Amino acid sequence: MFHKGPGGSFISPYGLVITTKEPPDCYSLMQNPFHSIRQQYTRGTLSEEQVDRDPVKQLELWIKEAMEAECPEPTAMILSTTGTDLRPSSRVVLMKGLDEHGITFFTNYDSRKGHQLASNPYASLLFFWPDLERQVRIEGTVERVSKMESDNYYDSRPEQSRISAAVSPQSQEISSRRWLEEEIKAQGSRLEAQVKAQGSRFKAQGKDEGVSIERPENWGGYRLIPEYFEFWQGGADRLHDRIIYIWTGSDWRIARLAP
């Protein structure tokens, strides 16, 4: 619904000021601004001969180039999962590991994505670097990483991040942000006191062992084991380059998709 503005103008529900004698048509107005948003992609091309035969190495190269280009959050990726209700959900997570075994990220196992992965261990990832006009789609199965790997990563995090991960009931409804901040403050003090007491016991026993806030059992890592990659390079006039890798069971088959 539009409201009259100054000088005979009309103001949309989103604050867009339209100068016209008659109230504008809502549908056409809401469509046209978005229809006009477009740009030519001209930063590069991608060919079957150009890419590495190993998609993991190709991904490593593109992430390195995104870092060198100072793209914001170059390791951010959209993780999409589906539970038993077959309703997909997506969120942005940070990649924390990449090797021949797969792509690793960490989260709360009791979160929505944790429950969905428990019932359906298939997921997709999407990297997007608009400054380079590139994206990478990855599909595969997901498994939990070892407890040791989760512990090592958890211990590498800043102390306040460890406290937040241990205390926050991720994906559950809470009464307010104030409740969360007070809970983290209270539980954080308790955890810090436990660590201090444990350190004192070790010292009294003559043990020279580092102590830290322990990783909660419901928090840790996942690894997506890829079966499919698509490397997308924007091209002029919508002629984008799309190179895919499909795991055959013994090696990667490389092909091109139409844009």
Task: Describe the SSE topology.
Layout: E1 3-4, E2 9-11, E3 17-19, H1 26-35, H2 55-68, E4 76-82, E5 88-94, E6 97-99, E7 102-108, H3 112-119, E8 122-129, E9 134-144, H4 147-156, H5 159-167, H6 177-204, E10 219-233, E11 241-247, E12 252-257
Antiparallel strand pairs: 1-2, 2-3, 4-5, 4-8, 6-7, 7-10, 8-9, 9-10, 10-11, 11-12
Helix pairs in contact: 5-6
CATH fold-level name of the largest domain: Pnp Oxidase, Chain A
Cα gyration radius (Å): 25 Å
Name of the CATH class of the largest domain = Mainly Beta
Number of helices: 6
Query: What sequence of helices (H) and strands (E) makes up the elements?
Result: EEEHHEEEEHEEHHHEEE
* Distance linking N and C termini: 38 Å
- Indicate the overall shape: globular
pLDDT below 50 for ≥5 consecutive residues: which ranges? 199-211
Mean pLDDT: 87
Total of domains = 2
Largest sheet: 9 strands, antiparallel
- The CATH architecture of the largest domain comes to Roll
Structural class: alpha+beta
Extended strand count: 12
- DSSP strand (E) fraction? 25-35%
Would you identify the CATH H-level superfamily of the largest domain?
A: Electron Transport, Fmn-binding Protein, Chain A
Helical amount: 25-40%
If you had to describe this structure to a student in words, what would you say it looks like?
This protein has helices at 26-35, 55-68, 112-119, 147-156, 159-167, 177-204; strands at 3-4, 9-11, 17-19, 76-82, 88-94, 97-99, 102-108, 122-129, 134-144, 219-233, 241-247, 252-257. The protein has 2 domains: 1-26, no CATH class; 55-181 and 211-257, Electron Transport, Fmn-binding Protein, Chain A (Pnp Oxidase, Chain A), CATH 2.30.110. Strands 4, 5, 6, 7, 8, 9, 10, 11 and 12 form a 9-stranded antiparallel sheet that branches. A 3-stranded antiparallel sheet has the order 1-2-3, with no helix packed on it. It is of the alpha+beta class and 259 residues long. The longest helix is centred in the C-terminal third of the chain and has 28 residues, at 177-204. 31% of the residues lie in helices and 31% in strands. The protein contains 6 helices and 12 strands. The two termini are 38 Å apart. Residues 199-211 have low confidence and may be disordered.
